[in-house]
From TrEMBL:
It comes from the Bacteria. This is Cystathionine beta-lyase.
Length: 514
């Protein structure tokens, strides 16, 4: 069997005209059925894995309250609920063909509810400034016994939670590969959001450099990021990517760069990280140069620390910021979170790294322990499996939109990540799940929103079309995007993880409504 049977026919070689105009018969062939069945088997495997995480949460709760009758009864109630969900998942395991998209989403969202509830209950009794008492000889106590608990001698707002630190280390080890040398001169944080990670990066830059040299924002960086940068820094300048390359390659004085290898709306050229870091490897100056990369759109397909960190000159500090809710929560959309990783020779000294910890506490940027308790365990291979299917569906969406342009159903469309050998996932170039689409005759936000509302209301329930923002989830989502003054609008689509035949069904339905 091929690793991806859907590649038996490449998306651009598919007979789109025949498929889209063939009435209600989708014409499922043997290789399509094989791909669909393997997708459903993968969904069942994900459900079983997520339920094992519920068992771990139940064990944690049970150990925290070994002698409390109310908590033990509550744990037993949750265990009964988990057992019922496990029975349903086990039934699908023997017959994965019965786990259609509706059944998968229904069971998964019941599992999601358990993660939310158990995480909140486990963390609900935590003290914000917990301590350990030493009044007796017995120090072998349960994790939660009122005045004495697992979180010892910490101040949770000040980066004290042991639960946060443990999850932080596990997730950053999984999602941000780097050499041992790079790791020794790095700081790595789980933050309350991706925007808070960016705020921490900008404040660290500002406090370290005193803004002695110019700071440049890539033209086309997302609007909230530009607003935050303009709020925190003195006179940052926007430059297109050609201007950024020119500054670096001419060895011009640069204090900082804020860049994104993905594409936001309104569309402007994305930065070519390979070219940028090639120029930075030859750049020389005495003052520090901070390069802040938003990795959200390229995610784990972009191992920038493994590729670039060890090549950087001593004055360059490489910082990655990323939303932790888009691709890293297995489609659960459980809790706001973000990631920040920074490295450079300027961080070799422990006191320099400690300055970042101090800023994290001052900005109250560390992740909330309640949120961390609700998150499934970080698992790179699980994330890659999810994103690989997202990417496959995105490749079919890409070919579909190309056909729609030729048919004049669509005026123009843009991917969120341009195909490049620099961003690969599971052997395939990563193009991201987002698309920006403009229809003939559509200009305003109101026009696109009206189209979305009508589309979602009339769509069959089993198709699971969603009117809503964000991306990286299981469902196919649509929302309107526009420039700052609302004059340049578009439909933004985030493809989901639909099994292959279901995805083709969605594309056919969408074509009929264009």
């Amino acid at each position: 069997m091929n690793k991806d049977a859907a590649l038996t026919v490449a998306p651009n070689d598919w007979d789109w005209t025949g498929f889209l105009q063939n009435g209600s018969d989708i014409g499922v062939s043997a290789w399509m059925e094989e791909t669909e069945l393997r997708d459903r088997s993968g969904d069942v495997a994900e459900l079983r894995w997520l339920l094992r995480g519920i068992r771990d949460r139940l064990a944690l709760y049970r150990d925290a309250f070994p002698d409390h009758r109310f908590e033990r009864e509550l744990e037993a109630a949750f265990a009964r609920q988990a057992y019922g969900l496990e029975e349903r998942a086990q039934g699908y395991e023997g017959r994965p063909e019965t786990c259609d998209w509706d059944a998968y989403l229904t069971l998964k969202y019941e599992i999601r509810l358990l993660y939310k509830q158990l995480g909140a209950i486990v963390a609900g009794s935590d003290w914000q400034s917990p301590c350990k008492t030493w009044g007796g000889p017995d120090t072998d106590f349960a994790e939660e016994v009122g005045f004495v608990q697992e979180e010892q001698g910490t101040y949770e707002r000040g980066y004290g939670s042991e639960a946060v630190k443990a999850y932080e280390e596990a997730s950053l080890d999984a999602f941000y590969p780097m050499s041992g040398q790079t790791r020794e001169r790095s700081v790595r944080f789980l933050t309350t959001s991706g925007m808070k990670a960016l705020e921490l990066a900008l404040v660290a830059y500002k406090s370290t450099t005193r803004e002695a040299l110019p700071f440049y924002i890539q033209e086309g960086f997302y609007g909230e990021g530009i607003e935050l940068t303009n709020t925190l820094l003195n006179d940052p300048l926007e430059l297109d990517v050609a201007g950024l390359y020119a500054k670096v390659e001419a060895n011009a004085p640069v204090g900082g760069l804020l860049v994104d290898p993905g594409v936001c709306w309104p569309v402007r050229p994305a930065v070519d990280l390979a070219r940028l870091f090639e120029g930075l490897s030859r750049h020389r100056q005495e003052q520090p140069l901070y390069v802040i990369v938003d990795r959200t759109l390229t995610s784990v397909a972009n191992p920038l620390f493994a590729k670039y960190a060890d090549r950087l000159p001593s004055h360059v500090v490489l910082v990655s910021v990323e939303s932790g809710i888009k691709h890293m929560q297995y489609g659960f959309d459980l809790a706001n979170a973000g990631f920040l990783v920074a490295t450079g020779r300027a961080l070799e000294a422990a006191e320099r790294r400690e300055q970042w910890v101090t800023l994290l506490a001052l900005l109250d940027a560390g992740a909330d322990p309640v949120a961390v308790r609700q998150l499934p365990a970080p698992d790179l291979q699980r994330v890659i499996a999810r994103l690989s299917r997202l990417n496959r569906n995105a490749c079919w969406m890409d070919a579909f939109l190309g056909h729609a342009v030729r048919e004049e159903k669509v005026s123009v469309y843009f991917r969120s990540v341009d195909p490049s050998p620099d961003y690969k996932l599971d052997g395939r170039e990563w193009i991201g799940p987002l698309f920006y689409i403009q229809f003939p005759g559509y200009r305003s936000v109101a026009q696109y929103q009206s189209w979305i509302d009508s589309f979602v209301v009339s769509a069959p329930a089993e198709e699971h079309f969603v009117s809503g923002g964000s991306f990286g989830f299981d469902t196919f989502r649509m929302n309107v995007v526009s420039d700052a003054d609302g004059t340049e609008a578009a439909l933004r689509v985030s493809v989901g993880r639909d099994p292959f035949v279901r995805m083709l069904s969605k594309l056919r339905y969408m074509y009929g409504r264009m």
